[in-house]
C-alpha cells in the first residue's frame, strides 16, 4: 500500500483531524485531475482572477503555515504583507449519512475503486459516481480574517492551492473533508466486503447445519477459505503465546514538533513525550512508575534535570524560568535542586532540602572514620557533618548514601558536588577542591 510522501500528517486519535506541516517554497500547482478540480471549484466563483493568481504565488513561496483538515473545514494561517498572519478557512458541506451509505455500497460493489484509493488515486468513476465527492462551483465557502472585502481573497486562494497539493498526495483528505476518516472508512469497507463475500448466492443452499460438512450435496455453496472459529476453540490445547518483544535499552528521543499559530507549545509537547517515554520504559523494565508520588516541586526539578546543556541555550533558559515561576521558586534554587537531582534523583533532592535525624549507626561511625583518615573533627548537626572552615560538608541521605557539598567559607551557600557513596571518607576526600 502506498502512503503519501510529500507531507507527514499528524492525525487525531479518532482520525477526524489531520494536521499537515507548512510547505517549503516550490511549485504550488496541482498535478492530478482531482487536485485541479478542487482549485476550479474556487476559481469558478471568483470575481477577481488577480487575487487567485496572487494566492497561487503565496502558496508557491511557502506562505501557508500548517494546514488542519477536519470534516467540512480546511484551516491555516497565511502570511501576507503584514507581520501578523491571517487565518484562512475553506468550508465544504460533509456528506449526509444516507449519502455515505450509498457511497460505501458503491465502493464495495467496485473493488477497483478501493484498490485505487489505497494507491492514493481517485478514479473519475468514484469521484463523479452516484455521490459526487468533488465540490462544484459555489460549494467551497472561503473565509479569512484579512480586511479584503472580496471573497475569495488571495489568502484563501493560497490555502486552496495548498489543499489541492494535499489532495494530490492523498485523496483520503477529500474523504475526510466529506466526513469520514481513513481508518474508519477502511474498517467499514472491510466489514462490507466480508459480509458480501460470505453472503450465499440467491437460491443457493448454504449446506446442512448438523455438524457435517455437506460435501455430498451438489447444491452446496463452496466453503470460504479458512478455518471455522468454533473448530479452533473446540480443538485441543492452544499453542503457547509468542515471547514478548525485547525491552529497548532506553526510551528514544521524541520527534521535533512543529510550531503553529494557535497550536500547542512544541517545548511542552517535547516534555510530555519525553516523560511518557521514560515512564513507559521504567514500567516495562521494573514494573514501577518512577513518577508516582512526586510533588509539584520535585516534578519540576525532574523535568529541568532531563534537559541536556541546562542553562546554555535560550530554550533551556526559558524552560528553567517557566518551571521556577510555576513552582514558586527562583531560578538559582532550581539550578541547585537540579544539581542534587542529577547526583541522586529524588533521594538526592531530599538530601538537599530535608534535614533529618538519622538513627545510631552509619552517621555515628562516620566521625571517627574521618578522624582516623586525617581529617579534622567535623561538626555534627542532624544528618550533616561540616568542616570547621565551613567550606565542605557531608549529608547522609535517607537512602544510606553520603552526599558531598561545598560552599564559600562562611556564606552558608551549599551546592551538591562529587559522587555520592556509602563510604564517608571517600566522599569527603573528593571534596578537597572545595574552599580554602
Overview of the structural elements:
This protein is of the alpha+beta class. It is built from 15 helices and eleven strands. The protein has helices at 33-43, 49-60, 97-109, 111-118, 124-127, 154-169, 172-177, 182-198, 229-233, 266-286, 296-305, 314-327, 331-353, 362-372, 424-429; strands at residues 10-11, 18-20, 67-70, 73-78, 86-91, 141-144, 379-381, 384-386, 392-396, 402-406, 415-421. The protein has a six-stranded antiparallel beta sheet with strand order 1-2-3-4-5-6. Strands 7-8-9-10-11 form a five-stranded antiparallel beta sheet. Strand 4 (73-78) and strand 5 form a beta hairpin. Helix 11 (296-305) runs antiparallel to helix 12, helix 11 (296-305) packs across helix 13 and helix 12 crosses helix 13 (331-353). The radius of gyration is 34 Å and the shape is elongated. The N and C termini lie far apart (71 Å). The model is unreliable at 1-7 (pLDDT under 50).
What's this model, at a glance?
The protein has 436 residues and is of the alpha+beta class.
Write a concise keyword list for the protein shown above:
436 residues; alpha+beta; six-stranded antiparallel sheet
What structural category arises from helix and sheet content?
A: alpha+beta
Total strands: the figure is: 11
What is the ordering of alpha helices and beta strands?
EEHHEEEHHHEHHHHHHHHHEEEEEH
Distance between the termini: 71 Å
Q: Which outline best applies?
A: elongated
Give the strand order, joined by hyphens, for the main sheet.
Answer: 1-2-3-4-5-6
pLDDT averaged over residues: 83
Note the total helix count: 15
Task: Tell me the radius of gyration.
Answer: 34 Å
Low-confidence stretches: 1-7
Tell me roughly what share of residues is in helical segments: 40-55%
Report the sheet-strand fraction. 5-15%
Main sheet specs: 6 strands, antiparallel
